[in-house]
Amino acid sequence: MEYSIWLDVCSILTLISLILANRIKKTASLYRNNLVLQAILILLLNTLVDLIVIGGRISTNRFLLYSLHSLKYILMYAAFAYMIVYTSVAVNRRIHGRNILKLFIAPIIFIVTLLLSNYNTEFVFSITAGGFFEYGPYFAIFYCLDLYYAAIASFLLLRGRQALSRNHKILLPAIPFIFITGTVFDYLFPMAASLQFTSTIFITLVFSYMQNPSEYYSDDSLMMNRDAFITMCESRFSPDSHTQCIAINIHNFDLLVKTVEKNRILHAEGIFIKSLKQFSKKLLMFKINNGQYIIIMDENNETEARLVYEETCNIMKILSNSTRLSIPVYSTSCAFSSPKHVSSIRMVENLFAALKLYENSDNILTVEAENLNLKSDAEIVRIEELVKTALNDNRLEVYFQPIYNTEKKKFTSAEALIRMRDDEGNFVPPDIFIPIAEKSSLIIDIGSFVLNEVCRVISEEHLSDYDFEYIEVNVSMVECLQSNLASNIMAVLKQHRIFPSQINLEITETSASEFTDIVDKNIKTLYDKNITFSLDDFGTGYSSLSRILSLPLKLIKIDKSIVQAPFISTDEKSMILLKNFVKTPISVGFEVVAEGVETREMAREIIKLGCKYIQGYYFSKPLTRTEFVKMIKLNQPAEV
């Protein structure tokens, strides 16, 4: 039986080209990409063996030719198995250990056993005395194996079709098509080596869809980015997974970016990666956002994970004390596992939000996952539904905290604060439902509710008759990103017939650092309409002074953690820091509000520093509308 070598030659040239292209393309070294590269190498070896045995006529030795033909089939089905594993990874983002046995090891063991028994029985194929290959009576077993792989691939695609990316929805259905087409052609044209060629065509298509570093890697660093994290690890944070992880949040990363050259930061990240890789090579490292990192163990080994965590903390401690970055690195690290602590990417975001609460500490911190009180997806959905119900059933309330004017010695403004009750009438803390509402459009509805209630109080209670100037209303970043924000706010003011000067909009320092063109445009439009702005939580977001000066701000509100620190600690540095936070804004023309003032001593010291406004429990807690209006009409604040 004479065979044609030309399809094998074309396959070999194509596969070698793919290997060379990979070196030029420098494809991201991700699990599923590595599967494709390994499949290319196996298929290349398979095709070389096929070319040798059908075209080279290297020997008439029956044992040698039998061994080479057997190796050819083993390699062919190994390449098929790699494509099945690739399909599983594309669908599930991960191949679990028990599936490897079913999809990869078991079929190969069956093939090897079949070929070993065939040497004496010649049921599948035989080698003639002249060294030629001939089909045996049960060669159709190989065709059945082809269909078996096609069936597995089809099953995986159908079961996970909703999880497939757009590219994979186009590409992966070619897997069963290749198996079936290659099998049919091999049966009709057994002398053409068509199975290797059709497999080469398919693997070339797969290779063309492999992402490159610009899509999967974070800037110039050696860490993978958020997209890679979502692509690779979504299934690792699920009830079915068992994954050990480490989260690191660098609190003053924005300050580092503003004060340190980028290449020095990248160099420090490189040192961090290299140090951990030397300690353990079985790690996946992701840069989720600026200053937010996740390390994922490649194996579910709690003992090893704890060792890596301890090493991570040691490295962060070295970086914090190093002079390499000019300023200290303040961070918080947390070891967690899935599904025990985290079961979704959404919960990962909540984990980082919880780590941010430690940002006012000036030392290295490690936090146990159990102490973060992370909310499950079910709890998040429950709170979202609670917010929706509260909006529909009028279970949201606006409270008002008066602000003391140190010059007029009376209350001349206040901050509006949202409160929500659950089905049983109990209050739900804002720090629980606000972060969840901010991740959806619900925060827009809450913001609209608060603004309407504030305008209604100003209008109906005639607060301006009592020398009351304005009420501060918090505006979230989600609201600022709405192109119709300015027009909506002006419409509400017009509806309640109040002046723009009677409203002050609060933006946080953290959100100010993330402003986009549309946010700047909204702020400028509102400012031109005589609405003033204040910057809340000053001292926690590390905004540059030049950025603050560029905003049309009237007030700078110093965060309570900065205000209270000198009265809690005996460290003189805390008072020096507070003085600078007060005097710097005043020196450039801003008015300053000190938040969190709880004692008479604190109030007196704050007044000495030059603060015009004071807000805190010493003067008043947040009040209901009735209590607030009564207090403003009496206007008899505590003595200072």
Describe it for me?
With 640 residues, the protein is of the alpha/beta class. It folds into three domains: 6-213, Rhopdopsin 7-helix transmembrane proteins (Up-down Bundle); 217-374, Reverse transcriptase/Diguanylate cyclase domain (Alpha-Beta Plaits, 2-Layer Sandwich); 378-634, EAL domain (TIM Barrel), CATH 3.20.20.450. Helices cover 55% and strands 14% of the residues. The protein is built from 26 helices and 16 strands. The radius of gyration is 33 Å and the shape is elongated. The termini are far apart.
Poorly predicted segments: none
Strand percentage lies at: 5-15%
Q: Count of DSSP helices?
A: 26
CATH level 3 topology of the largest domain: TIM Barrel
Q: What CATH architecture of the largest domain do you see?
A: Alpha-Beta Barrel
Q: Whole-Å distance between the termini?
A: 107 Å
Q: Which strand order spans the largest sheet, edge to edge or round the barrel?
A: 8-9-11-12-13-14-15-16
Q: Let me know the average pLDDT.
A: 80
Tally of individual domains = 3
The CATH class of the largest domain is Alpha Beta
Could you describe the largest sheet, including whether it forms a barrel? 8 strands, mixed, barrel
**What is the overall shape?**
elongated
Structural class: alpha/beta
The percentage helix is 55-70%
Radius of gyration: 33 Å
> What is the CATH H-level superfamily of the largest domain?
EAL domain
Number of strands: 16
